[in-house]
Write a structure and sequence with these properties.
By secondary structure, this protein is an alpha/beta fold. It is 48% helix and 17% strand. Keywords: ATP-binding, Cytoplasm, Kinase, Nucleotide-binding, Transferase.
């Protein structure tokens, strides 16, 4: 595939955006960027520094701390994908917990946080040949992306997938707890003032409630092929 394009994958939490994006990037030989990991890392930083809890959120202190937050993706050859590093420390495992999930949407609401991360994301994708997933990739980060995907499925379906993942990792969670988190994140993501989660006008919506990973990948790969042929 000679023509290199930008692929933006947006959608609700736990729709499998990252899984699909990794598959596509590996298959196409593209760079993969998990923007959700970046926001999770900032949320983890806020938790570590006692700037956020269920009772309070010290936004101003987080904003003042942004210059000291260094985010990097480092490729792990054994895993086959890049892991998230926060201030030179691998936090890939720590940022995937339900505890971080509770706060990540609140952190992502902060305009200064979004501005800092969007700037980095735009820089990462300046040469195309990139697959990036998140909440505002097709609308804010790469509105000019040649292919935009918007992924969705029911909250119950997404919560079940997320619950199974967490249990498989040994996390002590209940399905009700995960479902509540999914629904709360949906509300915050779609109602925030700065870059809310919306489907771009030229995005292709994919409801993967009843698609397995292979079926989903095949559908999107056909879209990729059609897109590269048309440019």
């Amino acid at each position: 595939m000679d023509k290199k394009i930008t692929i933006a994958i947006d959608g609700f939490s736990s729709t499998g955006k990252s899984t699909l994006a990794k598959q596509l990037a590996n298959y196409l030989g593209y760079v993969y960027v998990d923007t959700g990991a970046m926001y999770r890392a900032v949320a983890f930083f806020a938790m570590q520094n006692e700037l956020i809890s269920t009772e309070f959120f010290d936004k101003e202190s987080l904003i003042k701390s942004l210059p000291s937050i260094k985010l990097q993706f480092k490729f792990n050859a054994d895993l086959g994908f890049a892991e998230m590093y926060l201030n030179d420390v691998n936090v890939e495992t720590e940022i995937r917990t339900i505890e971080v999930s509770r706060f990540v949407s609140k952190v992502a609401e902060v305009s200064e946080v979004r501005a800092k991360l969007v700037e980095q994301q735009k820089e990462m994708g300046k040469d195309k040949a990139i697959v990036m997933d998140g909440r505002d990739i097709g609308t804010v980060v790469f509105p000019e992306a040649e292919l935009k995907i918007f992924m969705t499925s029911s909250a119950t379906t997404r919560a079940k997938r997320r619950y199974d993942e967490l249990v498989a990792k040994g996390d002590d969670v209940t399905f009700e707890e995960v479902l509540k988190n999914v629904e709360e994140r949906d509300y915050i993501d779609t109602n925030r003032e700065d870059s809310p989660l919306v489907m771009a006008n030229d995005a292709v919506e994919i409801d993967n409630s009843y698609l397995n990973r292979k079926e989903q990948f095949d559908v999107v790969l056909e879209l990729v092929n059609d897109t590269t042929k048309s440019i």
